[in-house]
Amino acid sequence: MHVTFLGTSGAIPTTERNTSAVFLRRAGERFLFDCGEGTQRQMMRYGTGFDVSHVFLTHLHGDHVLGLPGLCQTWDFNERELPLAIHTAPGTKSQVEALIGVIGTRPSYTVAVHEARPGSVVVRGDGYEIRAFETEHRTRSVGYALIEDDRKGRFDREKAEKLGVPVGPKFSQLHRGESVELDDGSVVHPEQVVGPSRPGRRFVYTGDTRPTDTTVEIAQDADLLIHDATFGDDNAERARPTGHSTAAEAATVADRAGARRLALTHVSTRYGGHVAPLEREAREVFDGELYTPDDGDEFDIPFPDE
Ligand SMILES: [Zn+2]
Ligand SMILES: [Zn+2]
């Protein structure tokens, strides 16, 4: 699972930071979370490719969606054939459809807009699901979590050989959870040679939000939590009325959730080139891996047991 930060600025872009967008690649599938103005140029600049199957919008503030009409038009010029699914907060479907159709023409490929009910599975894929969760902003909003299925336990090859299992198809039968009978009539059960199942990875993207219990809940043991950190302590009083979080509040959510890694994003232009105070304030609360990514930064998210 590989993440590219395409836009890390708050409401307004700067020359260094574009507005919100996160690109996620997992086993041949590519997803885009939010699509601020200029996202398509960021995709070119940072070489993500354009092969996106699902776009997940957290809410309809311009800094999260204004890149969508342009990107949809470019896909049209590129003769995209793959259908596109766009997920958006409940009650915003018609606005998203209007946004794509704003120039008066419709893309030639199929675009389906789905409203993502908080708490529901919005995509069920091969080995993972993507869930929407409730966030708290000044408008209808949701966050998204990609949660991988548990993986099979480790196969203890040495032990299997010791028990007399011949190298070959019986190994994979056992790994699949089936018991096997050996030539001498004895039976070997999977639990004798296969370890406990291992958790998959968990990626959580909040979009703009106050710190919430729903984020703490869904970000339990998250391998990467990307959280709104618009303000530092010096502007803490602005966070609540604007529906945002401070870096310390984001860190508190990550700490309560036991997240392994926290990325602070959507930073206000006042910290654009100087994020050290945000990191310092977050560090006081959260002792996992902490990042304040720049545009173009990339992360490989390892499995928890790697
Ligand atoms: Zn925003
Ligand atoms: Zn917003």
UniProtKB/TrEMBL annotation:
The active site is at D63 (proton acceptor). Its EC number is 3.1.26.11. Its cofactor is Zn(2+). It comes from the Archaea. Coiled coil: none annotated. Zinc phosphodiesterase, which displays some tRNA 3'-processing endonuclease activity. Probably involved in tRNA maturation, by removing a 3'-trailer from precursor tRNA. This is Ribonuclease Z. The gene is rnz.
